[in-house]
Write a structure and sequence with these properties.
With 383 residues, the chain is α+β, with helices and mostly antiparallel strands. The chain folds into two domains: 3-203, 3-Layer(aba) Sandwich (L-fuculose-1-phosphate Aldolase); 220-375, Class II aldolase/adducin N-terminal domain (L-fuculose-1-phosphate Aldolase). It has helices spanning 3-14, 57-63, 72-85, 100-105, 117-123, 128-136, 150-167, 188-203, 220-230, 248-253, 257-260, 269-275, 290-305, 326-346, 357-365, 367-375, and strands at 26-31, 34-38, 52-56, 110-114, 140-143, 173-176, 180-185, 241-245, 280-282, 311-314, 318-323. Helix 5 (117-123) crosses helix 14 and helix 9 packs across helix 13. The radius of gyration is 21 Å and the shape is globular. The protein starts with a helix and ends in an 8-residue tail after the last helix.
């Protein structure tokens, strides 16, 4: 199998929004002692050979034998340094996926990791683990919510070793709670068959599809709010870009704070990176000065979370994506739309389950995700 097959497979899933949103996910190919792994910042939808990093599998294997610091930040930094040192000559300017170790330890020629909203309806649900067992049995491995990086790689390794001893074969499907799915096979056809099986199985259980019809164009109150949110600090100098969205699904969610609850936090790391972990819901109450009320709510949110919101919902009006560029603002709305899909699909599996607060804090402060969002152009320059 050559690299072109991996490129074709990567583009197939990367260009399909049912599997990949905002450039998320990663893929890999093992060729003897070399691992080809998607580089950080490369988009699967149009990836070329240059988008992959060639890794020395012998050097990666040595990482499992090392002892790293107990402190999470120091540990991840040390592991990253060792992963960077495991790159093959000529790859010095590239940065391998943070999930490189996980890809390398899986006993399959090809590995494709994505974050489909349909799959995350299961992995981000209250009854996800039990439902996964009922639906997939020994074909799938369920991994409880775990911080990405080295910690996740170890969790999967231990669980996979136990699964193989128990069942006599490795699991070809790995469901990561509040994250996504890994699929492994030795052929591209095997990957496609597994994903088709996963999506068909879950699709048969979904009770409702989100209704994004009835899109409403920006009107008086939303235009005024967008102007205010473009300058949320009231400095008189507009620095933020704002994109508005309203449709039937969003209209139902912004009826009141209770209706908004299913999308009021983050489901996965990607949602945090692009649309934030704490969307701001504002009830204007039909009275008072809009600018004052929005800016006071904004100020309170920043004081509470330590960061400005990327999504603002106004009761009865709609949702706004906010960022330092139009691309960032649209990405925020794109990932918030994905959040809506996950929340709707999760209804079939016991209702939504957000990431734990400490897991959200880890992502918000993790150097790898700051790097990823930075190269994606979704952060302010000073960040």
């Amino acid at each position: 199998m050559d690299l072109q097959e991996l490129i074709t497979l990567s583009r197939y899933y990367g260009a399909n929004p049912d599997y990949v949103v905002a450039g998320g996910g990663n893929t890999s190919l093992k060729d003897g002692s070399t691992l080809f792994i998607k580089g950080s910042g490369a988009a699967l939808s149009d990836i070329t050979a240059d988008g992959f990093v060639r890794m020395d599998r012998g050097k990666l294997a040595l990482i499992w034998e090392k002892t790293y610091p107990q402190n999470a930040e120091d540990r991840e930094a040390a592991v990253l340094a060792d992963m960077m040192a495991a790159k093959m000559p000529g790859e010095e300017q590239k940065r391998p996926s943070v999930e490189t170790l996980l890809h390398d330890m899986l006993p399959f020629t090809l590995v494709v990791h994505t974050h489909p909203a349909l799959v995350n309806g299961l992995t981000c649900s209250a009854g996800g683990e039990d439902e996964a067992r009922n639906l997939f049995g020994e074909k799938a491995l369920w991994i409880p919510e775990t911080n990405p990086g080295y910690t996740l790689s170890w969790a999967v390794k231990k669980a996979m070793d136990a699964h193989t001893r128990r069942s006599g074969a490795p699991a070809t499907i790995i469901l990561l709670q509040n994250h996504g799915v890994f699929v492994g096979a030795d052929t591209a056809g095997g990957i496609r068959d597994l994903y088709r099986y996963i999506m068909d199985t879950l699709g048969s259980k979904i009770t409702r599809q989100p209704d994004f019809s009835g899109k409403t164009p920006q009107y008086g109150p939303s235009a005024e709010a967008a102007a205010i949110l473009g300058d949320p600090e009231g400095t008189g100098s507009i620095r933020q870009k704002v994109v508005f969205e309203r449709n039937r699904e969003i209209a139902a969610l912004v009826e009141d704070i209770t209706a908004f609850y299913p999308v009021s936090s983050a489901f996965t790391p990607d949602h945090i990176v692009y649309s934030g972990s704490s969307p701001l819901f504002i009830d204007l109450g039909g009275k008072g000065d809009m600018a004052y009320l929005i800016r006071e709510a904004w100020k309170g949110q920043v004081e509470k979370t330590g960061r400005p919101p990327k999504i603002v919902a106004l009761r009865g009006i709609g949702v706004f994506g906010i960022g330092p560029s139009e691309k960032a603002a649209r990405l925020a709305l794109e990932l918030f739309t994905d959040t809506i899909k996950v929340a709707v699909y999760a209804q079939a599996f016991g209702g939504p389950r957000f990431m734990a607060a400490e897991k959200q804090d880890f992502i918000n402060n993790w150097e790898v995700e700051r790097y990823r969002s930075g190269i994606s152009g979704v952060t302010n320059k000073e960040e």
